[in-house]
Amino acid sequence: MSHTTPMVEDGPTGADRLKPFVPYLLVLPGLLFVMGVLGYAVVGGIILSLNETDMFMNKTFVGLKNYIDVFADPRFQAAMLRTLSFVVISIVLGIFMSMSFALVLYKVVRGRRFFRGLSLVPYFVSGIATAVMFRFIFTTSGGFVNTVLAQLGLPAQSWLGDPTLAFVVAIMANCWFMVPFASLILLGGIQTIDKDLYDAAAIDGANPIQIFFRITLPLIKPMLGVSLIWVSYISFSTFDIVLALTSGGPLKATELVSIYMYELAFRQLNFGQGAVLMVVLLVFNTVLSLIYIKIFVMGDRRHSEAGK
Amino acid sequence: MRVQESGPMALLFQRLGPKVLIWFTLTFLVIWTATPIIWAILSSFKDPLEIYESKSLLPEVWRLDAYRKVLSMPGFSTWLMNSVIVTVVATIVPLILAILAAYGFARYAFKFRHVLLLLYLIPRIIPRVSLIVPLNDLMSDLGLINTYSVLFITYIASAVPLATWILVGFFGSIPKEIEESATLDGANMWNRLRHVMLPMAWPGVVTAAVLCLREAWNEFSFVLALVNQTDMRTLPYQLYMLKDSMGIQDYAVYNAFTILTVLPLLLVYLLLERKVVDSIVSGAVKS
Amino acid sequence: MAEGYVEYRNLRKSFGGLEILHGVDLTIPEGAFAVLVGPSGCGKSTLLRMTAGLEDVTSGEINIAGRMVNNVHAKNRGIAMVFQSYALYPHMSVEDNMSFGLKMRKTPLHLITDRIKRAAAILKLGPMLDRLPSQLSGGQRQRVAMGRALTREPEVFLFDEPLSNLDAKLRVEMRAEIKALHQRLKTTTIYVTHDQIEAMTMADLVVVMHDDRIEQVGEPLAIYDRPANLFVAEFLGSPAMNLIPGTIAQDADGRFVQTEAGLRLPLEPEANGTVGQAVVYGIRPEKPDGRGRGGRYPPGHCVGKDRAVDGQHEAAGGVLPRRRGRAAARR
Fold it and tell me: What are the ABC transporter domain coordinates in residue numbering (chain C) (predicted)?
């Protein structure tokens, strides 16, 4: 091509020399910043996990010693098991609640906007505030639950003093915080389903339960995947809620990996081992997310795109 | 349906069963969602001793004492200002970066587009808590502990991917023809962005802004790891520290403080609720 | 207004090694209403978008008003375009939609007001200037899209299937309106459509495109009567032209076409083709008698006021080269 007319301005006409770089100039600043900070932290954390640190943050390279020590540490093993059960229970309960809320928010006609708006409120309450609120719901003297129990003539419970009950309360607080977002995601999935399908299924003689399992559930699979990622991400990295609710107690009954990590690094000043727990959290969460994406989102891309 | 089920009682159950279930679940949803907040509000108006002793749910007298105490705390205005400053910066800067990036992703085909887009997603699956250990170490080395900069940097870095992903969806859904039409109308990239893309993607911009606001206002782990001076605390951090700083717990003050930290963000949310909820339901926001 | 013409010289377009426009040569005279018509995916929209400056030119030249515009930015080409989806700015009032382009060009305010007034008067948009596109009907939106193009006072109007989103009745109305507008303004217009009726009724110059190249260019009736090849013959006209395969033969009366069924079809003396050549004989359904020898028709089925007749018939017509592609009748 031998063009002599000068290019007047940038834009789709294209001969502008800068043009090929425009998208990169747009996309890269944000990415470099994010990668700079988070990548720096992740890499720094991995390096830190290979070092032993003393109280003055002097580091000596020790290879995998921290990993060996941490994995052999019974307190870590307990925290890990506790985290896994916390996550599993949270996911099961959280998805059940999200699905129920989503279905109800879909079905309700009068005041639909109000209920939807209300349902998302907890999402905007900080983890710390959530924890404080739940503490005053369940606190022994003057808590909401015990006050109600008293009015019913029932004995007060030491909710946060009992290891099992405290664990349950922590899961409840976690669900309170994470369910709203998940249920709106699911609601979005349910709304994209063509209403004719329900009518067709009803004419075919399916009852509501069959309709849910045969029509709704398969069609919202991608959304289910997204909300599963959200729910398990939040549960795995729950930190502020539990820290402010129970500080890991009583008797370490709610000491999750994230809490133990904080304890190791910031209380015992063992940053090397703390960093090992960081790697553990990172790997678990990434693997879990990838599994969900593989199962739910990738496998059903056709659906989600058709739904848009 | 089997034959014996279609008697009058069964029919009645069939008609009413789902309705009852819906109302039951809806009632549960409302109670479940509202109770913690309402209880905190009620408690914040009570007398400290009343909380321990009274068997009544409502305050005997509605007192504002607790709020007065919170507002007169030395440092409350500092913490509030810290929260506001950090939140404003950590909302505006990520929004600008995200608008540019999202526009690039939505409107240009280029090499590595897919890879770069995925790189924007990865930070969303990194648990932020996990970063507190290395961040504390690295930022101490840089001498950035107890500075605004360190909060800006970490908050912005965690908000950019979120905002970008939201906006890519919104920009992408704007028909290309409209922008082409603007090109023919003589609008350059900035003008197209300003006069066409941003106004049309406004619900998305608002949603992204509110969610950035939420992340920054509620952020806790980063402050915890990167700040240890009293005058650098943000509201959530101070709320956490209340537990240790008050000798005998004044539940009313505690609750009042909670309400005051939660309220500003809730007001923003209630103001823009429609756009935010619609955006999330439409699937434009995926964590 | 109404100066300039559009000229394409060996214009090509490739996308990642795949050529999607194979060497277009075309001249559109000043003031003409040219319609690019062809099935979807034939390259007509690409050609239009390249003219607008929305697509790069791979090789060849586009000239507008004697100026080579390959590297001129879209906004400086003196064109205005009406999109299939109208592409109205949904957040702007009708007035703002029409003035946006002028504002972007820093046109003085009083000029903007003048031009909007004039465009609104021509298109009867006066009462709607304050409304948003979402408050308008399909036909009104269409008018706004045209008004937006009008205020620009371009040298060339480009229309990209502007009527395909309207219902049948409105389409007929708007067709007439666009044509009337052209007669009034005499601005060179390039109009893309897949609807051959639009092409036949609106164009001064029909450009039939197929498989990323031009099949035939000419006035509507000329093309209709003398399609250059099988594709054009089949594509134009509804119901479609009857096509009967045969062979050119000759006897004492002159040349004729011998069909496989043994019919003898007359051949105009000026028709090209040599004896023994395999040809396809085309007969327009609406003139079955012409110079034909009559025949028996089964009862017809109704298509509006016309009666379409399905049947076999022998009649006069032209001979088409069997091979598709470049046609002898090309100008």
Answer: 6-236
